Hints:
Elements: H1 7-35, H2 46-51, H3 53-71, H4 78-91, H5 95-112, H6 119-145, E1 154-163, E2 168-175, E3 189-195, E4 201-207, E5 216-221, H7 229-234, E6 241-244, E7 260-265, H8 269-281, E8 288-294, H9 303-312, E9 316-322, E10 330-331, E11 346-350, H10 353-358
Helix pairs in contact: 1-3, 1-5, 1-6, 4-6, 5-6, 8-9
Amino acid sequence: MLSDKSxxxxxxxxxxxxxxxxxxxxxxxxxxxAAHPELLDGLFSRSNQRSGTQQxxxxxxxxxxxxxxxxxxxxxxxxxxxxxxxxxxxxxxxEPQYQVVYEHLFAAIAExxxxxxxxxxxxxxxxxxxxxxxALIKLEKGLYAAQANGxxxxxxxxxxxxxxxxxxxxxxxxxxxxxxxxxxxxGQYVSVKIQLPDGLRQVRQYxxxxxxxxxxxxxxxxxxxxxxxxxxxxxxxxxDILEISNPYGEITLKDxxxxxxxxxxxxxxxxxxxxxxxxxxxxSERQVLVLHAESTLDSWALRGQxxxxxxxxxxxxxxxxxxxxxxxxxxxxxxxxxxxxxxNASLYLCGPLPFMQAQW
Length: 360
């Protein structure tokens, strides 16, 4: 936990560092990639660097962690740390890389805050960083140890490539070697490593959209302006080999007999489809409410799979929102505030950020 010596320093400088962290992180990444250009090949997302998404994520996580330490003495933000650890594990992050990040991040902090930083401030924020890093390292070691194999990446052959709604494609994979396979949980994802036309390798996370267990299938939506999905949709063929990670993701179907609400929009239906498939395969008697928002019925990825699974479940109901409504559907955008949700339900929500933000 944060030491008594560092706590007042963090309290006094949190607003300042928080206001500058958005400027510090671009400097950090410039330093990091200048010293380690190999990290852009198969680890960091080039498109996220261009858009600033990665910088915002790092800045937000550090600021949120420090704020939690100040406001909740003696505790850690377990939910946030778990989410980050699963993402890191899916990328194969290793313990020594935290030292590399520390060196370049704190060089950027020292440069940006040169007029105000003191040894006491640097020491306190170093403590915050390593509290966060050590917590993540511990979680990630546990995640790696729980896998059926010790590999970061394993080869899988594309057994089928199936259209799944307008602009979406489902890739069904089978193991390409004898590496032991970890059973995935409904709602988890894998990282997929793709070589781009310029030779650079890029990684993206895709939710497993079909059966859980040791099978692997994921569904992607084509982004014409993206780097990875055009290669998957237009260049990858049946018989090709893809490198994928073990399954990760902390948001999974929890055991129990209470109601389940699966709410999604667009391609966000992929993890909810996996959860729904698991419920159908097990013959669950739980009350299940499936809510999905889409532009048109034909654009709904995994439509056939999801409607079939709803029909297989005696306690399931489906409600749709379409921008171009059809008989039996709702018009416009979904709002959970307008839905009669079952009491004490487990709610799973996935979709584009504006959709997610609109539900609260």
